[in-house]
Amino acid sequence: MLSRHTRRSISLHNVAALSPIGRQLRCQPPQLAISRLSRRCVVTTQFQPRKRRGSDSSHGLPHGRSLATAVDDFKFSSPPYSPAADSSMPPSYLRPFDYSAPLVLPEPGMARITAKMNMFGIPGDAEDMIPVFDACIRVGKLERAALVLKRLNTIGAVPGEERILLHNQYLRASLNQMRTSPDRKQAERLHKWYELEIRNQNMPQTAETIACMLKASLISERGARLERLINRYMSLAPGEAGLRVLSMADILSDSDLAVITEICPTYNFAPESEDIAFAAAEEEQLNTTEGLLQQTEGGEAEYPEILTTPQRGLGLKTLKKGLSLMSELQKVDISSLSLEEQREFQVRLERDTIDVAIEKWRADNKHLQKMGVSTILKPSNEQGSISQSIPKWLKAMEARIMEELAKVEESENRASKTEEDLERCIYGPLLRQANPTRLAAVTILSVLNHSSAMGVDRGVLLSKLVNDVSRNAQEDMMRQLEEKQKLERRRLRKVQFTGDAADVKESSEGMIIDGFGPENRPQAEIFQKAWSAPIKAHVGSILVKSLIETAKIMVIKAHPVTGELLSQNQPAFSHMMAPRKGKKIGVLVLNSELVDQLKREPVGDFLAKHLPMIAPPKPWADMNEGGFLSSKATLIRVKPGDVEQKLYCQAAIRRGDMAQVFKGLDVLGKTAWKINNNVLDVMVEAWNTGKEFANIPPLNPDLPTPPEPTTSGDPLARRAWLRTVKLVENERSALHSQRCYMNLQLEIARVYRNQTIYFPHNVDYRGRAYPMPTYLNHMGADHLRSMLKFANGKQLGSNGLRWLKIHLANVYGYDKASFDEREAFANENLANIQESAKNPLNGSRWWLKAEDPWQCLAACFELAAAHELPDPTLFVSQLPVHQDGTCNGLQHYAALGGDTWGAQQVNLMPGSRPADVYTAVADLVKESIAKDAAAKNPLALIATGKITRKVVKQTVMTNVYGVTFSGAKKQVCRQIDALYPDLHKESGIPHLIIATYIAKHIFTAMATMFRGAHDIQYWLGEIGGRVCRALTPAQIEELAESYEVAATVTDGKAKKPKKKAATSKLGLDELTQQFRSTVVWTTPLRMPVAQPYRKSSTKEVHTCLQSLVYSFSDQTNPVNRRKQLQGFPPNFIHSLDASHMLLSAIGCNEHGLDFAAVHDSFWTHAADVDTMSQVLRESFIKIHEEDVVGRLATEFKARYKGALYLAHIDADSPVAKKIKELRKTSKLSPKEEILLEYKRQTLMSSGNPWDLEAAQKILTPGSVYEEMSASEQDVEIHEAVEEMGLGNIPADANEEIAVSAESSEEMGLAGIIGEDQDGIAEDFEMDDDADDLAVRESSAWSEDMLESLKHTRFEQDVIVPKKNPTRKSRVKAPVAIWLPITFPGVPEKGDFQVSQLRESKYFFS
After folding, report:
1. What share of the chain is helix, strand, coil (3-state, %, to 5)?
2. Bridge partners of 1272?
3. Does residue 828 surpass a pLDDT of 90?
C-alpha cells in the first residue's frame, strides 16, 4: 500500500491540474505586457487564460503552481523550441544559416576589480556579496544586508538593473518586519533609504520598488503628505503601467488599494473573495485518487524479492529505505500510470531524497537503541557498521552546526573581528538559511558518494570534495526555498484602468523599467547563480570540518597475543597533506575500517541528480530548463569560470539557433530503458562470491608482497623492494576503488529493476551529448551496458535476427570480418550461445572469452530466447544493437578533404569487406620495426612480435583528436602492461621505454598514411593561431582612448613619454596580454562553440580547514594561445561528430526508432538497424555535402573582420630587414604602431578617395609588408601547428625518458595512466622518409633512450657534464608586426564524393 503522504501529494497535483490557477505571479504576464495606451480600458480579471487540462497552447508562458509540486509548470506536449523552427522542413534537415553573419558577442568591459573584505566582514567581490546578501535577507539580518547593499553601490560592479532587484529584496524584507510589528520610524528610515540609496544613485526602478514605497507611505504618512507621496510614486508607473504595481497582492492589501484608488481615481478596484472551491475539489480528487491507487495495488501481483548479498550488508533493503518512494512503489509499475502521475513521482524522488535519508537514519538509530541489534543483513548487524554509524554522525554533526551558528552570531556582533570572525561573517548567513539536519545529511551523502566514486584508498582531494559538498548544499537550499515559495497562494484581483491615455503624463523622474513587460532579467536568476569559488570554499570547508570533528567509527580488532576483541571509537575521516605530482595537497583520508565496510556494503542513499529518472525528462527550453523536473540542470557542461560559452548559447537560444540541439537531446532523453534482469542476476551471483570475474575485481585480491630485505643489505635492493611494494599497494588500491564504485552501480540497478527509467542528456561545449545520471547509464563500462535494454520491444523479423547475430559477433570481438562471416560465426556457435544462456556460471563459460563478456552474455540470453520459439523471427527483442564508426575522426577528415585513399581506409567508400585502419597502421609499424630489428636495434628486438591491433588502436584513434606524443606513449604502455605484464622482467627495460619506441613508429606510420587529414589540421591550426593573436576593432578603439588620456600635455601639445631600451619589449608584452579573442565557430546544428582555453588567475582562500588555491578566468583574461591553436582542430572534429550524432537521433525519431548513442556508437532495436544505418549515412552526407571548410572560412572572415593580428616573421627575410630599418627612424612604440596601422586600415576601408590618399602616406611595418607583397610564414604559428600534426614526434622525447622511467617505477601503473593524456608536448619535428636514413635514425634514437636510463634526471642535468655545450647556435628572434587578419586559402579538396557513402555497408558496422 502507498503511504497516505504519497497518495495525497499525487491527488493535490491532479486537483491543481484541473482547477483554475490560484496564484498571482509577481511579474506581469505577456498578455498584459503587450497592451498599449491607445486602449481605453484593460480588464485584468485574471492575468492568465484558463486552460483546459492537457492544453498545449501558449507554451512558454508563466503557469500556475499546485500546492504539492510545480509539475504543472512543465508543458511537455509542445516542445518549447518549436515556434523557432522552420515548419517547412523536417527536424532532421539542416536549417539554413548565414555564415557571413555569425553570432558575435559584444566586447567585454575592463577586468573586474576585487577589493578586500572590510572591517564589518563584508566581502569585496560582488560575486561573494550577492549570496551573502540573499542569505541575510532570508534569515532577517537586515542590518548586515544593508551594509552589503551600501558596499555594492560603492564599488559599482553590478549594473543598476540588477542592483534594483537587490534593493527590492531589502524593501520587501523591511516591510515584512513592519507587518509583524508596525513602526512608523522604520517606515521613515525606508523613505530615507529610497532617497539616498536608490533615487540619488539614479538607479532604474521596477513595479516592485514602487509597490514597496507605496506600502511604506501608507504605514508612515497621513493626510496631504500621504496623497503627495502616492501621486508621486504612481507617476513613475503612469497609465496601464500602474496595473503592474497594483497587482502586487503580496505587498499591497485590499485596504491599501482602496486608499490608492481613492487618491488615483483612474484605477478601479473591486475586491474578490478567495476561491473556496479549491479545497472541496482537492478533497474530492484525493478520495478519487486513493481509490484508484488502492485498486492498482490490489491488482498487482507480488514481485519476488531478488537475491540478497550477505557480503554487502545493507544491500537492497537499505537502498529501498534510502529511496522510500521506490520502496512504496515496488508493487506498482510506474510506467503504467499516467504521464502526469509519473512526473509527480519523479518530482518527489528529486525533492525527498534528503528527507527520507534523514528519516531512515533516525529510525535506524531508535531501533538500535531499543533492540540493541540491527535487522539488516550481516555484516550490517555487526557493531560499528555503516548502518549504525551514519545515524550517530547525523546527530553529532547537527549539534556541531548549531554550535557553529551560535559562534557566528558572536562573531558578527564583535566590534573588533579576528580572521576567524571575518570568515564566519561570510559563511554564517548562508548556513543560517538552511536546516542544520539537512546540511548534515547532504554533507554525509556527498562525502560518502564522492569518496566511493573517486577512490577511497588513496584519499580524496580536498579541493574537489569541498566544491562538491558546497554545490550540493546550495542546490538543496535553493530547492527548499523554492518549495516554500510554491506553497504560497496569492489572491487574484480585479483592477481596471479607467483613465484616458491622452491624459497620462510621465513623471519627470522617469518611469519604471518594467512598465509594459517583464523585468530585464528574472530576479531568481540573480540569486540562484552558483556560488563563487571563495564562497564554496568557505561553506564547504566548514561542513567538511564539522564532519571530520564529529564522525566516529567503532573499530574492533583482535589482540595479537590474547586474541581478545578490543573496540575503540576512531575518527571516520582525517585531514592530512599528501604528495601528489610533486606537490603537497590536502586530502580527506577515510579510516581503513570504513574503507573495508564500503567494499562490503554501499551507502544505500544517493542524491537524486545521480539517479536515473522514472518519468520522461523535461524537454529542453533554456540554459537551465530541461532534463530533471525539479533538480537543477544545465544545458552546457562547462567549468565554473567559463562564462563565454554560456553567453553564446544563451544568445543562440534567444535567436532560435539551438532548436535542433534541444530536439536531439530530447530524443536521447525520452528513450525508455529497463534493467536486463537476466544479466543482473548472473552479475550479482558472481559478485557474491567475492572472486574476480570478468571485470569484477576480487573482494580480497591476492597480491603477495615480496619479503623485506635486511637493513644491512644492499641499499639498491631495498629501493627496488620499496618500489615493488608501492606497485602492489597501488594495484590493490585501484581494485578496492573499482569494487566500491561497482557496488554503488549494482545497488542502483537492483532498486530500479522493476521500473522503466530514462537518462536526461546535456552537452559539453563542443556539443557532445552525455547522460546526466552519474552512476548508472549506458555510457559506462561493459557490465553497465549489458545491464540495460530498451523498455519497448520489437519483433525481430528476418533482418533483425541477422543483425542480432552480427551484434553477438561484434561484442565477442569478431568485428572485422564481413557481415556474412559474422552471422556464420553466430550460427556456428549457437550451441555455445544456448549453453551460456542456460548455465552462465557453471557451464563452459564460453561467453567469458569475449572482448566484451557481459554484453556477449546479454546477446546470448536474447538469441537463446529467440531460438526457443518455433520461429525465432517472431521473438520480441529489447536488446540494443550497436553500429560503431570506423575511427570517426578520420572519417570526418577524409570527407572534409575529399581524400579518396583515406576514405577507403575508414569505410566511406564501398567495399566487399570492412577496412580496418588500426590493422593497417599495425602492419606498417611491424614492417618498420622489422627493419630496425635487422639492424640489431635492441628495442626493436624486444618489440618484435608484440605489435597487435590492440596495441596501436587507442593511439591511432586519439591521434586525430590531438593526442600528444607524451600521451600516446602512455596509452601504448597501458596496453603493454595488460598484454605483456612480465616483459620488463624478461628484457630489463621498463615498459614506458618500449612504449616510447613503439609510439614513435605509430606516429611515423600515421604521418605516412593520412596526408589529407594533416593538411586540414594544419589549415585549422593556422587560422586558430591568427585569431588568438588578434586584437578586435573594439579593443583597438579602447587602446586609442587610453593612449589619449595617458598622453601628457605641455603648452597645449601632446608630449610623448620618454623611451628606454626595453620600452619596445615591455610595450609588446603589454599588448599581448590583451589577446582575448577566443576561437569561436558555429556547428552544422547552429550551436556556437567557444573554446575555453584562457590564462587563469589564481587566488588563495584561507578557510577553517586549510588554504585552498583556486583558479578563475573570464572574458577579460588573455587566451592561452598554444591551447587555443592546438585544441581547435580536434575540437572542431568533435563538434562535427556531435552534430552527426544529434542529427541522426532526430532522423531516427522521425522514423519511430528508439535511439541511443555513445559518441560514435549508435544503438537501436535489431529490427531497425537497416533503417538506422540509412539515417546515419544520410545525416553524414547532409553535413559534408556542403562546403564545411569553406563555410568555416566565411564565418571567420565575418567574425574577426577589422581585427589586427601580431605576426612573427623570419628576422633574416628581406621584408623583416626593411621593417627594422623603418623602426630605427620612426621610433614608435608598439602601441603607437598598432594605432597607426589601425588608422591606415580604417582609411583604406572607407572607400573615400581622400581617405585612400591619406592612407597611402602613412608608413607602417604593415604597409612595408604590403608594398613588398610579402607572404612570409608566421614562425611561431608554424612551430605550434607542427607540434600537433599527425605523426609529429617531439625533438626532446629522449630528454624526458629518464624522468618518465623513474616516475613509472616510483608511481607504478596508477601513476602512469592517471596522467593527462592530452597534455601539450613541445618541439616536434618530422622524420625523413628514406628507409636507410630512417633505420639509422631509429637506431640512434634507441641508443639515446637506453643511454638515458643510466642516469636520473638530476644526474643528467647537474652531474653529467654537457658533451656539446655549444651545439645549439643562437637563433635570431623573429620580427613582430601588426597585420590585418586574413586567413590562408582552403586546402584543395580531393576527388572523393561523400555521396558514395550511400553504397558503403561498412560505414558504421
Report:
1. 55, 10, 35
2. none
3. yes
Mean pLDDT (the chain) is 75
Give the whole-angstrom CA distance, residue 979 versus residue 798.
39
The rounded distance, in Å, linking the Cα atoms of 342 and 130 is 37
SS3 651: helix
- What's the grid cell of residue 233? 510614486
Residue 162 banded pLDDT, cuts 50, 70, 90: confident
User: Which residues form the catalytic set?
Assistant: 884, 953, 1160
Q: What is the pLDDT of residue 759?
A: 94
Residues 6+ apart with CB under 8 A from 1321: 964, 965, 966, 1283, 1290
Cell numbers for 78, please give them. Answer: 509542445
Gap between the Cα atoms of 394 and 439, Å rounded: 9
Residues 6+ apart with CB under 8 A from 402: 436
pLDDT, position 1318: 35
- CA dist., res. 1145 & res. 1155, Å (int): 6
Of 691, 673, 557, give the one whose Cα is nearest residue 615.
673
Cell 607524451, residue?
966
- d(C-alpha 1061, C-alpha 266), whole Å: 75
For residue 1055, what pLDDT is reported?
47
Predicted structure pTM score? 0.75
Amino acid at 244: R
What is the grid cell recorded at 584? Answer: 603537497
Q: Is the Cβ–Cβ distance between 326 and 747 less than 8 Å? A: no
In DSSP terms, 432 is beta-bridged to none
Cα–Cα distances (Å) from 66 to 153, 274, 344, 485, 1056, in that order, read 38, 16, 11, 11, 70
Residue 582 CB contacts under 8 Å (≥ 6 apart), including other chains: none
Give pLDDT, residue 1317.
34
Phi/psi for 667 (5° steps) reads -65, -45
Q: What is the DSSP string of 900-920?
A: HHHHHHTT-S--SS---HHHH
Kindly write down the DSSP assignment for every residue of 757-790, as one continuous string: BB--EEEETT--EEES-SSS-TTS-HHHHHTEEE
Q: What is the mean pLDDT of residues 1130-1134?
A: 92
* 104/1032 Cα distance (integer angstroms): 12
Residue 49 has pLDDT above 60, yes or no: no
- How does pLDDT run across 1283-1304, given as a tens digit for each residue? 665 555 655 555 444 444 444 4
- Find the radius of gyration of the CA atoms of the chain: 35
Residues 6+ apart with CB under 8 A from 952: 918, 921, 922, 925, 972, 998, 1002
Bridge-based pairing state of the strands 1161-1164 and 494-497: unpaired
Mean pLDDT of all residues in 1232-1249: 88
What secondary structure letter does DSSP report for 984? H
- Report DSSP letters for 13-52, one per residue: HHHHHHSPP----SSPPHHHHT--TTSS--B-S-SS----
16 three-class SS: helix
Instruction: Return the ∠ at Cα 423 (arms to 417 and 427), rounded to 5°.
Output: 130
- With 0-12 CB in 10 A as exposed, 13-18 as middle and 19+ as buried, what is 1293? buried
pLDDT digits (tens, 9 = 90+) for 295-335: 444 444 443 333 333 333 333 333 344 445 555 555 567 77
State the greatest distance between any 2 C-alpha atoms of the chain, in Å, as a whole number.
109
Please say whether the beta carbons of 67 and 12 come within 8 A: yes
Rounded to an integer, what distance in angstroms lies between the CA atom of residue 783 and that of residue 907?
29
Joined grid coordinates for residue 797: 523479423
Are the C-beta atoms of residues 350 and 70 closer than 8 Å to each other? no
